[in-house]
Amino acid sequence: MPKRNMLPGRMLVLWLSAVLMLAGCSSIPTVGPVGTASAEHKGETGEEAVFSPEGPADGASPQDIIRGFMDAGKGAADDYSVARQFLAPELANTWSPTERVTIYRSSRVVAVPEPDMFQIQLEMHGSMDSRGIRTDAPDGSTETFPVRLEQVDGQWRLSAVPDGIMVSLANFPVLFIAHNLYFYSSDYQYWVPDTRWFIQRAGIAANIVKELLVGPAPYLQGAVVSAFPAGTTMARDSVPVASGEAVVDFAAESLRDSSDLNRQQMLNQLEQNLRGLNNVTGVSMVVGQRDVDLGKGNGQLQSAVKDPSAGATQIVVSQGELAYYTDGPEPIADVPSVAEYGPRDPGVSADGSVIAFLDSREDTLLITGPGQGVRTAAEAGKFTPPSVDPRRWVWTAQPSGTGSQVFAVPPGGDRSSAAVLTAPWLEGLTVTELRVSRDGARALVVANRGGRSEVMITGLVRSPEGDPVSLTAPMTLQVPSKAGTVNRAKWASEDTVVAVQTGTEEAAPVILGTGRESEMLSPMAGIAGLSAGNGVEDIFIQTEEGIFNKVGSSWSLRTEGTQDPAFPG
């Protein structure tokens, strides 16, 4: 990927934009093992990662000042006071360290012809915005930051540098922690995760609540709901914790028009978001230091489900018929024979009432179930393997014009009653996989663009009645180049997926997530199918030999003569 060099005449524009980026290198999210933060006794939650970077030395060279400033990004104490020592006085007062975190693999400081000008050239790993939303960069990406220095009392100081800090990949997981915010699905039945990254220091609980009140990441907007209405604010910027109880103090006007049910939903949402922190066992809501009246329970409050289980049973094709598979293939009771269709890639609802599959040519979508016949739901056009959401809608995608379109067939419906969803971002993409998450609020999409694969998560926007309306602009999970051109992917948990390139050649499945580093699994030749159940240890692949399951770092043959395994969803 070619680098773009700075032109001195464009410096003002570059400073205002904060960074000179490679075209096409703004990708999307994930990384680092998810950790937990500890609560301080009678204080705020957060176990601070303590670094003590050194300030500038007398007589330091411009390169030393630049390097020192970069290193000082790991010292957050006193609003990055050490990093500010490397800046000229005026810039030290205006520089915003929390605007952006740049995560790099390697760095170079390069002089340019213009006096007192340098470039910081970084091999990128990713970046994080002020809301803790992380975006990973494609392999080989670089960014170039222009900086200027000046003499202050005979010492070099930075007089122009973009807002934000620069953190090495080695230091990032020590300084920052991944934490899932949780919002409700549109029917309040499920918790939907929104992974954010927070600096590990006192105040993590307050920062979590603040971000929760701001709302979901862009790709989830419209697909999830919050119990807290827009404009809800905290009365103070801290969340003290005493004897395991986190106390959230709200501004009085924020809750004035809320119902009892709404306030109960608020408390549930706070508990779901804060109990992931160590030493937080309960949450209370107060206004003006007085407990918020939650009213009486009337049976309307629902308990939302977090990370629904996929169960232990998969649906497969065995000897030309649909079958369930746990320890071996078993016929599905009261389901008609489908052998005449040459069934491929079946999908099943969580309750087993809806079963969808493709015919042998993969150009007809068929639906059946216990006590039902087989009906044609859609035809004409190559379809992706069907996915069945918690509301029993059947989802698939197919090529359309210069891109792809998504079909969602309602329970009991067919193509005439299907929701047909298009989106600008689907232009130029050939979708090869679409899997609705077990919370029903998101879809995992694998697509090919000009021979290059993309793995994305889009939000599913629904009407008040639950009908699919639109797809949000997605977030992208960066696939390591060594994983090849992946064309299949499955949900392994609420925030983790596994993807693979099928075909005759040897390929290695890769685990991707919104709060973890990618992980390559052991390769296997001739992978033709993939499924995933409850976590990254519950992964299956299919080859000509049969179906294998993941055992440690190896693959173990589970069964022969079956194909196209899929967990419910």
From TrEMBL:
<feature type="domain" description="GerMN">
    <location>
        <begin position="205"/>
        <end position="296"/>
    </location>
</feature>
<feature type="region of interest" description="Disordered">
    <location>
        <begin position="35"/>
        <end position="63"/>
    </location>
</feature>
<dbReference type="InterPro" id="IPR019606">
    <property type="entry name" value="GerMN"/>
</dbReference>
<dbReference type="Pfam" id="PF10646">
    <property type="entry name" value="Germane"/>
</dbReference>
<dbReference type="InterPro" id="IPR018910">
    <property type="entry name" value="LpqB_C"/>
</dbReference>
<protein>
    <recommendedName>
        <fullName>GerMN domain-containing protein</fullName>
    </recommendedName>
</protein>
<dbReference type="Pfam" id="PF10647">
    <property type="entry name" value="Gmad1"/>
</dbReference>
<dbReference type="InterPro" id="IPR059026">
    <property type="entry name" value="LpqB_N"/>
</dbReference>
<dbReference type="Pfam" id="PF25976">
    <property type="entry name" value="LpqB_N"/>
</dbReference>
<keyword id="KW-0732">Signal</keyword>
<feature type="signal peptide">
    <location>
        <begin position="1"/>
        <end position="31"/>
    </location>
</feature>
